Predict the structure.
Amino acid sequence: MSTQETTGQDTDAPDHGGPDDTGLEPTGAAPIELVAGAADKGERLDRFLARAVPSLSRTRLKALVQEGKVTVGGRVIDDPGRKIDADARIVVAVPPPEPAEPEGEDIPLAVVHEDADLLVLDKPAGLVVHPAAGHETGTLVNALIAHCGDTLSGIGGVKRPGIVHRLDKDTTGLLVVAKTDRAHKHLANQFADHGRTGSLVRAYRAIVWGVPPRKHGTIDANIDRSNRHRDRMAVVARDRGREAITHYEVERTFAGSDGTPAASLVICRLETGRTHQIRVHMAHLGHPLLGDAVYGAGFKTKASLLSPTAREAVEGFHRQALHAAELGFSHPVTREDVFFESPLPPDLAGLVEALAG
């Protein structure tokens, strides 16, 4: 008779890339631990496992043995026919399932430019860039596979073919995608340089609560994952996180019902590209984006300062008011400097109109 134990795994423990105390290479999944009973003495290892681990097929278990994923008494055994002894401690390391390769889906794409090396797209709100937990299908990658076939760069891996940079699900605007590995490497180098020595340009239009203190300004504040909310980013001390610099310019202000400034249309130019950078920086400045449920939730009451028409428009706007309006870079093959612009999408343009009115 066998007994089974499941060992936990400390997800905060560093992965040194070597064997753990089971003698197996780490797989990322908790190993299955078994102890053979007296009646199991002399049993073939694969038959014992098939009976003791009914959740896995005998074929799968045999393969795990042959792949060196099973130890008996602390030693890796790769012979499925090996006879076991009573009281033998047997450990099976089951690797996590391989992620399924995304498939092409007929999702419309707004192609701004396309050539043999790259595409420039105008991403709509609500479209996730690449498959992830909770969004395995219906992503930009699925659309790109259908549109480009096998001509996407493979550097990003099966989940992110051609993806050089990302936009949040509910951020709209311009995005460049690489079709070849050569183009991907050259574009990735430009994004890593952040335009400091090259021609990369990234500018966003955002609608924020209130009016920043100066018409032109720079937010230079490191960003890291929040200690309080692990699904959010936050401004942190200089000795933590990653450098993050955003340059902003107030393009237009909108008055509230009493005539005082209530919101602004701001142009943000990135000198670095961190997760949620503009949203985090503008919130840190005290002027979060309209519609930002993550970083601007505490500003919902500001809508009461607006005219009835503007208030209705704001309350009906259910995404962060952010649009990637300008994108420029050196073409990875021709080396020509190219530049693209995207007008505000209808929902953002309507919000501006309501605030101005």
About this structure: The CA atoms of residues 210 and 262 lie 5 Å apart.
